[in-house]
Amino acid sequence: MIAILAGRRPAQVPAARRASHLVERNAILYRREWSLIVSGFFEPLLYLLAIGYGVGSLVGSAVTLNGHPIPYAAFVAPALMATSAMNGAVYETAFNFFYKLKYVKLYDAVLATPLGVADVALGEIVWALIRGTLYALGFLIVMAGLGLIASPWAILALPAAMLIGFTFAAVGTAASTFVRTWQDFDLVLIVMIPLFLFSATFYPITLYPGALQLVVQLTPLYHGVDLLRSLTTGSIGPGLVGDLVYLVVLGGAALLLAAVRLQRLLLK
Amino acid sequence: MAISPSDTTALIHARGLSKRFANLVAVDAIDFDVDRGEAFGFLGPNGAGKTSTMRMIGCVSTPSSGTLSVLGMNPITDGPRIRARLGVVPQADTLDMELHVDENLFTYARYFDIPRDVARRRAKELLEFVQLNDRAKDEVEPLSGGMKRRLTIARALVNEPDLLLLDEPTTGLDPQARHLVWDRLYRLKQQGVTIVLTSHYMDEAEQLCDRLVVMDKAKIVASGSPRSLIDRYATREVLELRFKIDAAPALDGKLEGIADRVEVLPDRVLLYTQDGDAAAAAVHERGLQPESTLVRRSTLEDVFLRLTGRSLIE
Q1: Which residues face B165 on adjacent strands?
Q2: Residues A69-81 pLDDT 10s
Q3: Exposed e or buried b per residue across A116-126, where buried means at least 16 C-beta atoms within 10 angstroms of its C-beta
Q4: 20 to 30 A from A193, CA-CA: which of A74, B3, B72, B228?
Q5: How far apart, in whole angstroms, are the C-alpha atoms of residue A119 and residue B113?
Q6: Does residue A237 carry a pLDDT above 90?
Q7: Is beta strand B65-70 parallel, antiparallel or unpaired with respect to B12-21?
Q8: Beta carbons of A24 and A115 less than 8 angstroms apart
């Protein structure tokens, strides 16, 4: 009180710590609703069984990576791991974030506390990336159990999946701020399904004609797939730097956009 | 202390404070000061600019022009620091519907970086304070309006704020729930918490506020203690007359001289006077036959009517 009368400014809690309290709030909620999280993990696992092994038995060793034949399941698995990181992050930021923003007005209450819009954006993105990472971790364990990991580089697959989770969480949060009604989420699915199917997920990108290869290389999941596939198969090359830069820049830009949009929506 | 300029001791200090939106001036160059320990009210009809003013004080809305200091700090640059010491009860309840009653208080305390064990203890104490301890583990949605309001007030107290901002704390509550909220706010006031509230209820302002300003159309039209406003803008008593429907036009001039001021409303006629009973007798002497007469003390409602020519709640 004396400090205030003297005009001295009290200490401020650091931003990362402020954002962490929102992560804690989500963790409290999901302690009860853990089944919601678990369900999202099974989707890519089912694809691995159906396509990696089912279709894989027809494909044989027709797929090659850098000139070497590779078991089809080992080719598809890292792509599905990238997809699971994307799914976890986007489900959380698109649907749950929108619900909290527009329906339960959670952030109207949160912004009356020391937390600001940047803390809200960061907190939600971190939470979503945690969810995406959990999916990816579960998937990585399954891959190890099935003998689909061919390189010690795979140890970096988890941090790489966290980066993928961050990028898609940031993009999902930014996109959510433009959504007006639940119907708009059809658009999110219209974007996510082709990303899942065509990001060199099930076959090498070299199958596309040159121009189409360029288009695929502009989309984010392709870089996530390429990153994880390189790490779990051990085909490390300079292309990895491009993947990393792409994901970092896109995620950072989306985080910035999300904060600016939230500022406009919530602090009128 | 006495030699300090007023703007450093006031908890809130505003000069020429304005808020403009695209095609609307919500707050138009208002001046006010709120001192430590007082209960201060913004009174006015819907759309007068009360909520916009509260949002600027709460550092969730940037002033368009003018100066504002809250707790001696600048809301634009020190928002997080100021908000750390505020308790906010917004106009519409913004409870966390996904969490249970006690979790609402716990997580809110965590937003203020309050350690977990302290947060748990405060949640428990505050639920007792607002008489919701038996609902601690319940969902929020099924609670009644009054219970939600009390929970929102409890939530605003988790950080032991220096300044409590309440935007229409009892709008929409039944009389019993309203009195319970008033009682809790009165206790906080006794404990020395500075309270700023908005209301369109005159009785609420009379009950709770030491000082208030009346807002109308984005401007402050009067300020003072409830009593001083009544003294200045109304008379000691009011005689209310109700006549048969459509009889009012026929009154033309017949009430002249009986009261200091006569206000003809659609449903009744108000006579502002120092002596309501004498005025009632005078009305009957003139041969008028109102269906009912009521002598009452004047209220802030009468002040508002005088100042704006409109009843407060239409």
Answers
A1: B88, B196
A2: 889 999 999 999 9
A3: bbbbbbbbbbb
A4: A74
A5: 13
A6: no
A7: antiparallel
A8: no
3-state secondary structure chain A: CHHHHCCCCCCCCCHHHHHHHHHHHHHHHHHHCHHHHHHHHHHHHHHHHHHHHHHHHHHCCCCEECCEECCHHHHHHHHHHHHHHHHHHHHHHHHHHHHHHHHCCHHHHHCCCCCCHHHHHHHHHHHHHHHHHHHHHHHHHHHHHCCCCCCHHHHHHHHHHHHHHHHHHHHHHHHHCCCCCHHHHHHHHHHHHHHHHHCCCCCCHHHCCHHHHHHHHCCHHHHHHHHHHHHHHCCCCCHHHHHHHHHHHHHHHHHHHHHHHHHHHHCC
Contact of B109 with A21, CB cutoff 8 Å: no
| Token pair 């969902």: residue | B139
Nearest by CB to B90, which of A22, A108, A113? A108
- Sequence-ordered list of residues with C-beta below 8 angstroms from that of B240, at least 6 positions apart, any chain: B268, B269, B270, B271, B292, B293, B294, B295, B296
| DSSP label at residue B163 | E
Dig out the tokens for B68 from the structure.
Answer: 């504002």
Q: Does A17 sit within 8 Å of B94, measured CB to CB?
A: no
Chain pair A-B, CB pairs under 8 angstroms: 93
Can you give the pLDDT at residue B311?
64
> Which chain B residue is nearest to residue A31, measuring alpha carbons?
B99
**What is the helix, strand, coil percentage profile of chain B, to 5?**
35, 25, 40
Whether the per-residue pLDDT at A187 is higher than 90: the answer is no
Across the 314 residues of chain B, what is the mean pLDDT of every consecutive 10-residue run? 48 96 93 95 90 95 95 93 95 92 97 96 95 94 92 94 94 86 90 92 88 94 92 90 72 80 85 91 87 89 83 55
Fold that domain B235-298 belongs to in CATH: Alpha-Beta Plaits (3.30.70)
Per-residue confidence (pLDDT) for residue A41, from 0 to 100: 77
CA distance A226 to B1: 68
Verify whether the Cβ–Cβ distance A116 to B80 is below 8 Å: yes
Question: Using an 8 Å Cβ cutoff, are B294 and B240 in contact?
Answer: yes
Considering the domain B6-225, what is its CATH architecture?
Answer: 3-Layer(aba) Sandwich (3.40)
What are the extents of the domains in chain B? 6-225, 235-298
